[in-house]
Each structure stands twice: as structure tokens, then as C-alpha cells.
């Protein structure tokens, strides 16, 4: 794309406000910035749009959002009147412009004759997934950039089962967007008039109630909470986002009496003023909560990201220090706990299964299989886990107990099809209460878990590659890995290489190849000697290449040592 011509087209367009034009004028001397804003449209992938807020074709703004809404509207119209009447549920988080983009989308859909159900204020992402299923909508939109830094926003689109848009529908939206002129091709109308005519219906507390009732049903053994509720305390932080109301509420309904919320981070604010990254992956975000926990002698902290789909926890260890758990550790703890509680309460279904992504710890498989529960893998992205759940429903082959990814996303229950921090917080709190009734802390339970299932250790090394040059470098890197296969990584021999684009697994010793079940994603997966894995993939949500290192050892230290040695190799390979 001729980015200078596109820049000028925008600069001269009368649709821009004075402020928008001034923002574009302010970069006129900066060619690199112009290129980054105009080199290509934001791509509409299966997770919708995600990008930095600002004026430009490759930015999140009212024009790019309008084009996406029109693309979705066209897809729904092509599905016929019944689909249009089923409507679209729309939610948003605490980011800048999230409510504006949500309202704008509702007006664009309504102008195409599609009913919309718009939340009255920010809501957890999983509540949107629930609302789509609950109200029988054809689709859903969520304005959020999830856990990304404050400069970002995003446009996640969901389909009728409450999961993120399947690739076939995403392709249609992308094509419709490309055929829609960003300035003149988007139809809209008056918000007030649409509300009055019922084309836009506002969702409020009644939807929260229906959602919370469903979440509560996922609790496996809530009686244990009642036994310890008088003394048990926990600290909660929503990182300035959508978990602020419903997470404490579900914990209260579960029976907790002492929920200490971090007051600064309970304030809704798209600048996320107290954290660098509103992402439970980073410990720094928990600093205020840890202080609060220390003052109140609390040993469990729960944090949820701005759209309340990710959940992180911090525990007090035996020396009194506060340590963060990884998404893998929390996931395995929950698998182990859910299986225990299901057995205890006689609620284990026939053919139980857990689901995880290929970059998620193998310890999950060990925990499941040791207990007679099957474990299945999918690609990264909750939409793939949701697809598997749907497949189980269709064939009746398995009943899923729990699905999770190392990226701090967990789901149980049938009411939603995206990871749910409200449910995860509830299950974590229930699990902590259960161990308390056994005279243990969650930290004790985690240590025992390693003794039971083996010493696994994982680390993700992320290498940021920003801008247009970063995109090019990522492409080159993945191409190089395919052209010149790695024979060794660090000091380890590569035994098998899996290319998940072609779906081929090659034995390095003799070049023999076999077809795998999963294919079609840009992931290179190396099986190293000694059962260690090393996986490279470009992130789908941030300008990063991620290297996932997963090892098993005879002790915690031995596993960690293997991982550390390979971290250095990761930085050598991904440059
Ligand atoms: O590694 P990335 O492509 O950035 O994705 C990391 C995560 O992003 C989002 O949160 C998706 O909903 C998750 O399913 C995914 O695991």
C-alpha cells in the first residue's frame, strides 16, 4: 500500500475532526510513524481487531471500528432476517473509547436492521459470551484489548455459540471490510431513536443475575467455604477493570465473608495508573495488593485483568514471601482440585476430559491421566478450546471438566465459551477454602502437586518486535526456521520437529515424517532429548515472538536448570 497517499487521503478527508486532523499533522515529518499508521489496515483475524489507539488505517479509532461493525453487519444481513432479529450482544471494558466504540457499533448494526443488546456499563468478557448464549444472539462484540498496555484497544467478535468468530465467518467480515469505504461506506443512525424503537436494548443488572446464577452452579464443593468463612481472608484486585463488581459479588455468594479489595485498583480507569501492564502475568501489578495482604496477614491474592477473562494469583510461601503462580501452575492446581472435589461429591461425569493448548504444561496431562481423565490439546486461543468443547457436545465422546491456557485463562461450565475470571476466581477461592479445611494452604497443595505428578517447569521468553520492521522480521524468522531446520537447541539434540503450519512431524535422525491432527498455524515445535520442548510462535495479540520452554526434571531445581539453559538459546535464535 502507498502509505503516503493513504495518509494524505485521510488528512484531506472532511470526516476528520479538527483534533483528529491535528494528530495526523503532528506526525507529518515522521515518515516511520506515517508508515506504521498507514502501511496496511489492521488485520481482522479470528480474534477481531487489536491495535494502538490513534488516527490512521492501522490504528484503533472510530473509522476502523466503523468499518469492522459494517463488515459484521453485512455478514449478519447475508444470514437473513431471522439472524438479524436474533441480534448482537455488545460489551466493553474500562479502556479509553471502549464505551464510545460500543455505542457506535450498536448504531451501525441497528442502521442495517440488526437488533442489538448493549450493556449499560463495562462487563467481564465472559459475561458477553454468556449473554450471546442466554439471549440466543447471532453474534457478539466486545470492545477490549484484554491485558494489553493502555495504548491499545480491540474489537473482539463472537459468533452464536458464544466463542470467538470461526475462521470462515472472520474471512467474510474481513472481505466485507475491504469492500467498505472507511469514510463513506458505513451507515449509521441516531442512538436515541434506536433505543426508543427497541432496535437497541440496554442490558443491565438482570443479565448479571442470570450470569452469576450460572457461575455459581460451577462451584463443586461450596460447603467447604462455609466451614472456614469466619476466619478465611483474601485480597482481590481488578486492575482498574471489569472484574470490580462481579468478582467480589461471586465470592460473597460463595460464602466468603472477608474479601479485601485493593481500593486504588478498584477505581475504573483506562490509564491503569497503578500498573505498568494490567496483566496478571506480571508481578509488578500485584505490588499494592501484596502490601495490603501483608498488612492484613492474608495468604491468597486474586487479580483479574481489565476485561476479567484472565486470572492471576499470588500466595504467601513458607518464608512469608509473596510469590506469583504461573498460569500453568494455577491450571494444574485447579485440575487436581476439581477432580478431587468431583470424586468427593460424586459428581464426576462419564468420559471426563480436560483441555489445554499445545503451549500449556504437560503437567496438566500427567494430573489428568493419573486420575483417569483424558487430556486434549488445541492451538493457542480460547476459540480453539471452545471448538473442542462443541465437538464433544456433538459427538458425546467426552464431557469437559475444565479448559485452560498457560496465558492465565480458565473455564469450567457450559454457560460461556470464553475464559472466565469470575468463575476462575470463585474456583480458586473454593479450592483455597478446601485446603484450609484440610489444614493446608494453597502453597502446601502446590508443593504436594509436584510430588504427585513430577517436577515440571516452564518459562515463556517473549521478544518484542515492534512496527513494520518487526512484522517483517517475524516473517523472516519463521521462514528461516523452516528453511534451515534446527538440529540442536542450546546443548540439546532436536529429536523431532513439528511444523504446525503443514502439520508435519519430522524425525530429525532420518527425516521420516508423519501427518499430525492439528495444522494451519504458524508454530514451530521442537521435541528435544530428555522430554524437553521448545516452541516458537509469533503472538496473535502483541508484536512479539514467544518462545515456550517446558521441561521435566528429577527435582524442582533440575527442571528449572534445564529451562534456564534454554532461555539463553531462545534469545540466540530469536533475534
Ligand atoms: O500468545 P498470544 O497470541 O498473544 O495469545 C495469548 C492469549 O491471548 C488472548 O488472551 C486469547 O484470548 C487467548 O486465548 C490467548 O492464549
UniProtKB/TrEMBL annotation:
GO terms for molecular function: magnesium ion binding; phosphoglucomutase activity; phosphopentomutase activity. Signal peptide: none annotated. Belongs to the phosphohexose mutase family. The keyword Metal-binding applies. It is an enzyme of class 5 (isomerase). It catalyses: alpha-D-glucose 1-phosphate = alpha-D-glucose 6-phosphate. Keywords: Isomerase, Magnesium, Metal-binding, Phosphoprotein. Pathway: Lipid metabolism; Glycolipid metabolism; diglucosyl-diacylglycerol biosynthesis. InterPro entries: A-D-PHexomutase_a/b/a-I, A-D-PHexomutase_a/b/a-I/II/III, A-D-PHexomutase_a/b/a-II, A-D-PHexomutase_a/b/a-III, A-D-PHexomutase_C, A-D-PHexomutase_C_sf, A-D-PHexomutase_CS, Alpha-D-phosphohexomutase_SF. Its EC number is 5.4.2.2. This is Phosphoglucomutase. Its cofactor is Mg(2+). The keyword Magnesium applies. Residues 528-564 form the Alpha-D-phosphohexomutase C-terminal domain.
